[in-house]
Amino acid sequence: MSDKTLGYWYLTLAMVLVGSTVVASKIAAAGLPPFTATALRFALALPCFLVLLHVSGERLPRPGWRDGALLVVQGLAGTAGYTALLMAGLRATSALDAGVILGTLPVVSAVVAVLVLGERPRPALMATVLLAGAGLFVLQPAGRGAGSLTGNALVFGAVLCEALFILLNKRVRIAMSPLALSTLMSAIGLAASLPFALAERGSMAAVTPAALLAVGYYALLPTVAGFLLWYAGTARVGGTEAALFTALAPVAALLLAALLLDEPVGPRQFAGIAFVLAAVGVSARPAARQAQVLPPTP
C-alpha cells in the first residue's frame, strides 16, 4: 500500500469517527444535560492530549495577550459552544437532520470568512451557498414541529461556532502544532463548561449508563483518535485534497443514525445530503478554494 493510499484510509476513518459523533451526541443528550456532557467530554480527552504532548516532547506555547484572547474565543466557540449546542439541538431534532446540517461546515466557513474576516469572496461561493441553503431548506417542510425547528437551529449554531473556530485559527500569529492546539482547546473547553455543568446538578437524576458510555466514546475515539488519524492522513495528502474527505462525515452520520438509532431515512434527508455534498464538492475544487486543513473535531 502506497503512503498516499494509507493517508486516504486515515482520512476516511477520521471522517467516519466525526460522523459518529452525531449518534454519540444523540445518545448522550438523551441522558445528560448538555454542559455536563460537554465537561465530561473534555475531562476525559484532556489527560489523553497531555500524555501525547509529553510523549512527543512538545511544550505548550506562551502566547501574547492578542493571541491568548483569540485562543480563548476559539475555545469558547469551537469546543464548549460547539459541543453544548450540538447536544442541546439533538434533544429536539433527529440525528439524520443534524448530520446533514453539520455537512454544511465548509460552506459556512467560507461565508463567515467573507462576512466577518473580510476575505475576498470566491466566484464559486454563491453556488455553494445556494446548494447548501437548498439542503437546509428541504429539511424544513411545512408541518414540522417547532421543537424540531429549534433543534435544527441549535445544530446550525454549533456549525457557526466550529466555523468561527477554524477561521480564528488563521488569525493566530504564534506558531502552534495541532497537538498543542487540541490540548489547549480541550483545557479551555473544560474550564468554560464546568461552571455550567455544576449548575446542571439538579438535572442529573435522569443520567443513564448509555449516555455516559456515549460521552466516553466521543471523548476517546472521535476527539483523540480522530485527531491522530486526521493529522496522520494530512501528513500524506495535500490540504485541498484532504478537505474533500470532509464530505464523508455527513454521509457517515446519516448511515450510522439509520443503522444504530433506527431513524428512518426519507426523501428529505436524501435530498438534503445531495445538495450539501454538491456544495462541498464545488467549494473543495482546487480552483475554487485555497488549501485549508479542517480539524476533525473542535
Strand-and-helix sequence, N→C? HHHHHHHHHHHH
Number of strands: 0
Mean pLDDT: 85
Number of helices: 12
- End-to-end Cα distance: 31 Å
Q: What is the percent of helical residues?
A: over 70%
Summarize the biggest pleated sheet.
none
Question: Can you tell me the number of structural domains?
Answer: 1
Strand content: under 5%
The global form is globular
As residue ranges, the low-confidence spans are 287-298
* Rg over alpha carbons: 18 Å
Structural class, from helix and strand content?
mainly alpha
Task: Report on the architecture of this protein.
With 298 residues, this protein is mainly alpha-helical. The chain has one domain. Helices cover 72% and strands 0% of the residues. It has helices at 3-31, 34-56, 65-89, 95-102, 105-115, 125-137, 146-169, 178-199, 209-234, 239-243, 248-260, 267-283. Helix 2 (34-56) packs across helix 3 (65-89). It holds the Pfam family EamA. It is a multi-pass membrane protein. Residues 6-139, 150-282 form the EamA domain. It comes from Massilia cellulosiltytica.
